[in-house]
Amino acid sequence: IELTYSHENFNESVISDEPVFHTNAPLIQIIDDDVSLLMLLKDVLEEKNWIVVTNTNPDKAVKQYFEMKPDCLILDIQLPHKDGFQVLQEIQEHNEKHFIPTIMISIKNNKQTRIEAYQKGADDFLNKPIDIQELVAKIERHLQRKRIFEQSVLIDELTQVYNRKFLVESLPRFFQHFNRSKEEFSICIVDIDFFKKINDTYGHLMGDKVLKEFAQYLKSHIRTLDMIYRYGGEEFVIVFPKTTNKEAKGRIEELIKGFSQKVFSHNDIDFSVSFSAGVFTVEDESVTMDEAFKRADSSLYEAKRLGRARVEC
Ligand code: GH3
Ligand code: MG
Ligand code: MG
Ligand code: MG
């Protein structure tokens, strides 16, 4: 059989244009030197609406693994330059905190190899030639477990939006996506105005209720591709993909207006709550992630200084 693809012209890259940070589309990384297998798996797995990243070069693969933090890794044992066990070891050394299921695949289907795979950190094993149906079933199960895990550690208990831990994990993905796509995106930090006073006046439980409703209000008034995280206390971060500075400002202004009209009541006393926001839009490569975040934060500070219930860019 003639192979249409050789190692030279097979592009080690993200094949899909979809943003890799989109939580609805799992990202699967496959490391294997068998290009025809990569092509086949890519076709089949993309039909599941998964985003598939393929690598033949183990060094590039490890680099990409840390950049993208895939949702599932499929790793061949026999690779050029170094073997899959070494790849696994490099990944394990730097990766205690991430939950990335790894399925090792190999033509060496003997007990010793399988045991070594598990001992070195693989979660699962499948022998070659790959049974695609079985592989898909395994990936599905691993993704399911990963989601359950994420629900328990990446969602804020009180407000049910993503937490700071997940913000720290996903922010680099937005920047990587920007570097590839050059699609501008906006980072917005929002903070409830005089929240301490709400706690002091109506009690901590009412404060909690306001927080919950605030988070739910924001969540239900942003697009599904926008992401919201509780950064801490009464501070939240919203990331608006594919959104200009002007658009982000407009959307936040509407949110401020809408939320301020909401009526809360406590012991027959009605009150309203406002919030302030700072926006920074990533539109060129000159800013680092930390700088972008700091710029959004100083805009928030400026919004507070200028009287609150407003957004500064
Ligand atoms: P500003 O308009 O300048 O933002 O004033 P502020 O009062 O909102 O800001 P400040 O940072 O002084 O107060 C934030 C308060 O949020 C202090 C803290 O007790 C309260 N807080 C933080 N987390 C929670 C929580 O989970 N529940 C409740 N009820 N209060 C919280
Ligand atoms: Mg191989
Ligand atoms: Mg506040
Ligand atoms: Mg605050």
TrEMBL record:
Residue ranges constituting the GGDEF domain according to the UniProt record: 183-313
Q: Which parts of the sequence carry 4-aspartylphosphate?
A: D76
Any transmembrane segments, and where?
none
User: Which species is listed as the source?
Assistant: Lederbergia citri
The top EC class is transferase
What is this protein identified as? Diguanylate cyclase
Q: At the top level of its lineage, which domain of life is listed?
A: Bacteria
Q: Which GO terms describe its molecular function?
A: diguanylate cyclase activity
What Gene Ontology cellular-component terms does the record carry? plasma membrane
Q: What EC number(s) does the entry state? A: 2.7.7.65
The UniProt record lists the keyword Hydrolase:
no
